[in-house]
Specification:
Largest sheet: 4 strands, mixed
Bound molecules: zinc ion
Number of helices: 5
Structural class: alpha+beta
Distance between the termini: 41 Å
Strand content: 15-25%
Radius of gyration: 14 Å
Shape: globular
């Protein structure tokens, strides 16, 4: 039988092994650092935006498979999107991880590959690993210079 959980795990492992858009972005207009002290994840997100669209986005850092795969999938999901779309995607992703499982059926829609993290909500301690990249992206967009922490 087709096992969705195994497929999800495979996608996460693949992005952990071969993170996409990994490394600094020389022409970045915004950047921020994020830390998740609970797990030891440290990420840096770079983006190039004209204030309307995310034209390019990269990340680098060290951390667990969930945090790296989430950052990698995030960069693929938000590149070329308007800032409003990015915000909406972030809200739906956050709902997927923290929301009521009975209502998150709708949240999965439109998330594309980000839906692979739906299993993370069963492990509350891992939710911060999965959302770290997104919090860091928000900080970059708000041009906060102090490193953000999930604590
Ligand atoms: Zn982690």
């Amino acid at each position: 039988m087709f096992d969705l959980k195994e497929l999800y795990q495979e996608v996460i492992l693949d992005h952990n092994r071969r993170p996409r858009n990994f490394g600094p972005l020389p022409n970045a207009s915004h950047q921020a650092e994020g830390h998740n002290p609970l797990c030891g994840d440290q990420l840096k997100v770079y983006l190039e935006t004209d204030g309307k669209t995310v034209n390019d986005i990269h990340f680098e850092g060290i951390g667990c498979a969930i945090s790296k795969a989430s950052a990698s999938l995030m960069t693929e999901s938000v590149r070329g999107k308007s800032l409003a779309e990015v915000d909406s995607l972030y809200r739906r992703f956050h709902d997927l991880l923290t929301g009521d499982p009975s209502t998150t059926g709708q949240a999965d829609e439109g998330l594309g590959k980000l839906a692979v993290f739906s299993g993370v909500r069963e492990f509350p301690i891992r939710v911060k690993c999965a959302t770290l990249a997104w919090h860091t992206l928000q900080a970059a967009l708000e041009s906060r210079s102090d490193p953000i922490s999930t604590e």
